[in-house]
Amino acid sequence: MMRVRFQTNASRVISIFVMVSLLLVAGPFLGHAGAGQLQNRSVQVSNNTPAFNDASYHFSFDLFTLGTVGSIELKFCGNSALFDDPCDPPWGFDASNVTIANESGLTGFLIGPASGSSDVILARPPAVAGPVTVSFDLQHIINPTDPGSYYVRMLTYPSNDASGSPTDIGAAALATTNDVTVSAEVPPYLIFCSAAIIPNMDCTVADDNYVNLGTLGSDRTASGTTQLLAATNADFGYTIRTLGSTMTSGNNILPAMQTTTSQVGTSQFGINLRANTNPVVGQQPAGGGSAAPAAGYNQVNRYRYADGEVVATANSVQDYRRFTVSYIANVNKTQAPGVYVTTLTYLCLANF
Amino acid sequence: MSKKVVGIRRVAYAMAALALTVGALMPSMFSKATAAQLVSRSIQMSNSAPSATGVANLVTFTPATSAQSLVIDFCGDSPILGATCDVTTNATTGLPNFDASGATLTAGSLTNWTLTATTTRVKLTKATGSATGTGSPISFTINNVTNINVARSFYARITTYTDTAYGGYASATSLGTYSDYGGIALSTANTISVTARVMETLVFCVSGSSPTSACGGVTTPTVTLGHGTPAVIDAQNVDDNGTVTPTYTQLSTNAASGATVRMKNSNACGGLSKDGGSTCDIAATNAGGTAAAITAGSAKFGLGVGAGSGGTGTVNPSTEYAASSGYGMDPSSSTGVTSTYGDTIMSSSAPVSSVNNQLTFAATAGTTTPAGVYTATMTLIATGVF
Q1: How much is the ipTM here?
Q2: Is residue A19 part of a domain?
């Protein structure tokens, strides 16, 4: 009787030992044996910069097995894609605040309450699904801290809490890498020139700097032109001023006009930057950009002159633009004889 | 004394008589005094795993006598002719699970011979074929046999006959009049399971120098476009980083359907910006499907991807970014470099290993491009389709 009892106990011990051994050996495979493999698996990442803190992950895969799907588990691992290996979460990776969007193929998922920082469980009321292509976005994920590869293991379950044996499984590898910063500097520039004539919008061929109005008389208006050419990449454009006095001959002067019309027989001197008909002199501003004559110098057949005044402005970057400055002079019959001259300096300031 | 001699003689005669008797009886025990042992005999099993089914057994031997039929008995306990042949299910002496009843013949040297089989026995006769030759090896295959279900030795006994009726064979212990004979030992053995695991891999890096294998020698890439010192861009030139600050990618993956590399621009406007992406005074050069040259002064920014080099496999630039045609940069927010997942700039259709592609960024200013330092942070993302 004693011998029988011993044999019975020994058998139990052996049986338990064998069962434990089998469990230890089969442990890594438990729940995965017989699972189908998810096909065409891919995971697109919106930003793979290490530690990027608001990345979206677009998952796509084809279900292999026709059956009930109640949950999908997405387990992020830093060490291995293999299901029978332990899963070490990628350092710094955090999906705690993940949300789901753009579901396709299978819908109705919510983030399951058992989800963790690196183990996302998508749950829905279990329902039968065919071998469809499933896709969805997981948003608000913090990427792993270090550049390199990491992995996501994907499992589907009939249950709605990722319990039990998975139906289909599959893994994908991802990689974070450093960004490329591209930089280029555009240096500031201001191109400006004045001359009697500036052909082809090209300062290098500007020619002459002298205007001869001829012999002034009370019965006619004397006129002449010069040109200005300006371009800049200054954000706030430029201003062109004129510096110098009205025409003088010793103590005798021709009074500067105040945006008035030409009056034959009246001593006066003025300029504008338009194409005029009285007298016929000047041209309209030409070329690219939006620079324009200042208000006092921008009226056809009206002329003006004041030392230091702005004659043209632009409030943004400007391509090459050419202004034609028209000069007129009238004298009355009592205007003192002499050689009337003035030296005008045009000053262009860019506003960067 | 004489009695003693007579006694000795009697013993000697008795011994001689016994020897003659035994000598005369032995041939009758083995049915043929002139039987020869088959030489160079063997049976190759296609599968030695216990319980394996559909096993093919290639039988080879060299007959001494021309035969018109033969019998192969499978026994669990002994190869010795005439000895007991255990064909029971006894795990140590029998033939547990062994089954040759469905055997078929691949004739080999025995053209037009026919086969009949039972669970533990196979019989072949020449039927419309020819008798075996002598002195040269013959071979044939007995297919569709199920092995014993334990890992150990078992045996085959072969007897050949000069007639087509198996020489009166009745059983493994009543062999009839055979011509040649031989025993062969076979053995089943546990199979060796070899498991190798290959996990999904994706190794991708961006480097300021050409990476060596497996993303070795990687440096942080910083691309500065321009000419002169300090480097600037203007409206008269198209500047690129081809030789000044080269940039490379390297891709390795075992994804069955290959991988794509997509690029995103940190600037929402898709080009180079000096205000954090609100505006791009140096805009993306959208080649409209095919990469194209950038014209100096056009204030454009683009990327050209060189053909893959080194490693194993092919990584091809997308048409829109192929450096062989020029530069591309699609600013579209739905599919371009400002979209959520970026624009595909290169791809492979199969697994690749350590393939490098050079990235050449290029830009030019316009005459009205505001002065400033323009930047863009380009994120390159590799995605495998496993």
Answers
A1: 0.79
A2: no
